[in-house]
Amino acid sequence: MCSQLQRIDWSAPWWQPWRAVGQRVAQRVLSGHSVAQALNAEHPPLPCVPQAALPEGVAYEAFIFDTQQVPTRDNLHDFFNGLVWTVFPHTKRRLNQLQAQQISASGVQTTRGPLRDALTVLDENAALWAVPAHSDGPVLEALRAKQWQRACIDLRAQWVPGQPVLLGHALLEKLVSPYKSITAHVVVVHQCADGDHLPSLDQALASQLSAQTLVPKPFIPLPIMGVPGWCADNQSPQFYQDSQVFRLPKP
């Protein structure tokens, strides 16, 4: 665990929203604290508890909803999950509420079903793209159409610094050792609130999450290394000609 934390290059652009809290929590773990202890020092909305607190046979999401505690292992996956709970508390509470409602209604099935599946994709692999009101803008429209050259080369000057904001904790875990094919599921957030960017983004996303907005899945695929400024190689148009990563629309 410690060696994995030491590999994180916090200067990478995708860590910008996570850098301050991530470095503090990582330093506590490197000093000998458990991941749960290190996260609890940040006063997350729900306390982290050791994984052993989760009884055998009890669904993880149901346990969190019923006990208001988050089982946490000493690994990178739960390290990042705890960071997201700390920075995006409204979103994580809403995701958990929707998951728990589905489990209460249908139990734990062999397959999750369309809503639980969408919630899991968002929780694990989402990147957030904030737009004012309901105006997507040309970059997002090009990404929807998988027009990679237009979105990432022709419209490069129109990308907003700090966009997108990565949310999925499995996605964050992958970026400890980045590679070209890491692909996020972009969620468009209609952010109208003023104030500090991350708290308002958190509240805006939480308020728009529902069965109606998540089924069918609303996600836009985005290979993360294609974000302008996030990889030196992507200044060349040839970077986006790799059809195994930047896939073309189906005919």
Mean pLDDT: 94
Report the count of strand segments. Answer: 6
Gross morphology is: globular
Radius of gyration, CA atoms, in whole angstroms = 18 Å
Please report the distance between the alpha carbons of the first and last residues.
Answer: 45 Å
Provide tags for this entry:
four-stranded mixed beta sheet; 6 strands; 251 residues; alpha/beta; 12 helices; 10% strand; two-stranded parallel sheet
Short summary of the structure?
Helix content is 43%, strand content 10%. It is an alpha/beta fold and 251 residues long.
Explain what you see:
The structure is a single chain. With 251 residues, this protein is of the alpha/beta class. It has one domain. It contains twelve helices and six strands. The strands form two sheets. It has a four-stranded mixed β-sheet. Strands 1-2 form a two-stranded parallel ribbon. α4 (60-67) packs across α6 (89-106), α5 packs across α6 (89-106) and α6 packs antiparallel against α7 (114-125). The longest helix has 18 residues, at 89-106.
Can you lay out the helices and strands and say which pair or pack?
Layout: H1 2-6, H2 19-30, H3 35-40, E1 48-50, H4 60-67, E2 70-72, H5 76-87, H6 89-106, H7 114-125, E3 126-131, H8 138-144, H9 148-154, E4 165-166, H10 169-174, E5 183-190, H11 197-208, H12 211-214, E6 220-223
Parallel strand pairs: 1-2, 3-5
Antiparallel strand pairs: 3-4, 5-6
